Each structure stands twice: as C-alpha cells, then as structure tokens.
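Sample entry (309 residues):
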Amino acid sequence: MGSERRDTLRGLGASPERRAPAAEVAWVDADRLLERGYRLLDRLGVGGMGEVWRARHLGLDRLVAIKRMRSDHPESNDRLIREARAIARVRHPAIVQVHDVVVDDRGAPYLVMELLEGDDLARRVAADGPLDQDRAVRLMLGILSGLEAVHRHGIVHGDIKPENMLLGVDDTGVERAVLLDFGLSHIFEPGVAQTGTLAGTPDFMAPEHIVDGVVGPASDQWSACVSIYSLVTGRPPFARESLPALFDAIRTAALPYPRDVEMDPRLFAILARGTRKAPGERYVDLHELRVTLAAWLRSRGPNNPMFDP
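Predicted structure, serialized as tokens:
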C-alpha cells in the first residue's frame, strides 16, 4: 500500500517541473477533446493511475484542468465518473469545481475541472516546515466547511489528507485551501453501516476503516483532525516503520502530544477528541468540530483573520 500511496495522482497541485508537451502521451484523445471545445496545453501532474492536464476552453477562453485515468487501468473509469458526480453535487469555495465530463470513443472519461494553481499542503509543509497552528486551523476551517457541505449531500470523501488540499489565493487576495480528489468518495446512509475495500492513505485512516473497512462521516472527521496535527507538527501522529505497526498504533495508541513544536493544549484536546477510537465518542458531526475550532481560533486574538463558519 505504501507504493500505491506514493504513486497515486495527487490532484491539481503538481509542480511545474513535471509538465510536458501534450503530444508526449498518445493515449490522450486530444482530437475528441478538441471536438468538445478543449485544447490541451501541457501536463500538470502524472501518477500511477492517471494524469492532469492544463487545457483551454475555446468557447469561453478559460483555462481548465482535465483529469484522465490511464488506459491500462480500466477499473479507474468508474472511479473518475464517481468523482465527477460527487463533486458536481456540491457548490462551495473550498471544494474543487467540476465543469464537464467528456467520454472518448473508447468509453474513457475525461473530467474537466476548475484549474487551481499552487502547492498541496503536504508539499508546502515538506518544503517550508510545519504551519503555525493558527494558520493551519484557519485553513482547515474552510476545508471543514466544504466537507460539511459534502456530508450534507450524503457523500463521504474517504481520503482526507494534506496532499488532497491545494493552497492558493482567491480573487480577493485571501489565502484558502481547496479540497481535491473525490475518487474514493461514496454515498452514505445515516444509520446504515458502510463497508468496503481497504482503500485510502494509511497514515490518515480511521480505526474503523482499517478494522472493518467502515468509512463514514466520523472517519472524515478523524482524518481531518489528523491532518491538522500533521500540518502543525510536520508529521502524521501515528507514523511507524511498518504498515502493521502503523495500523496497530491507529487502533490502540493515544494521540501523542508533540513536544518539539508549539501546540496549544486546548487545540490538542480538540484534536484528541476528534481522533478517539470509537466514532461515537468523537464530535457529533463536522459542524460541532468546526464551531469548536473556530471558538479556539477567536480566543487567540481579535485580529486573527479566519474563515467565517
């Protein structure tokens, strides 16, 4: 699973040095896309399962991102369609927007999405070091607001992590993070156990996910709290040398208080509750978590700008 995690397409935040001419990949149906009004420009990112391209919508003269799963992974087509349908239900500034789905003559789908420039939060932390706790929470309040909207539409994201959060600046000059990659999302029904395969990123999987394959709103909450911890400390809280040791720590170990970076004990207490082993012992829902984090951030100073929950 470690190699799968490294190879998974990270979304729209690929670094410029990975770009390449459109002609480099023959299996991308540029002619079909052109028929639908999209001209491929350059490749933004590539992974083991697919690629993301920059393109221009000729009718609107607008830059877009086009996501295409690799032709040698036919099972990924269903995942891309699922991602498109999930994102299309939600309108929120912290959720990447989908504009269109184009299907080529081979039945392969292309997901046309909002083009976002910037680095994902994992790459930013790796390059610049951990985020200040106020900044991390402020960015995550926007993500949580968007994720709350996702849950209201009956959708679980299933892969919340800093790598799936793109850091950018909106048209007003305000820094924001946008949630990407709904490829592991699914519909949930309240009161009905949701089970499935063990898919996701191990460091950010909730205990119920690795034990029973259950992924619900409380699992997204767990992953969001682990993401905040990782942004502030620069590392996932339960990281271990092997996958069995990691899973054992997620199932049994308490959230460790970081001794080498600054974390307000009140913030740690919030994250500790959101990462309790039993889903029923966490916050009732993302709204309760978000309001609690917003109150903590307001307590840090009246001039602390924040996403209004």
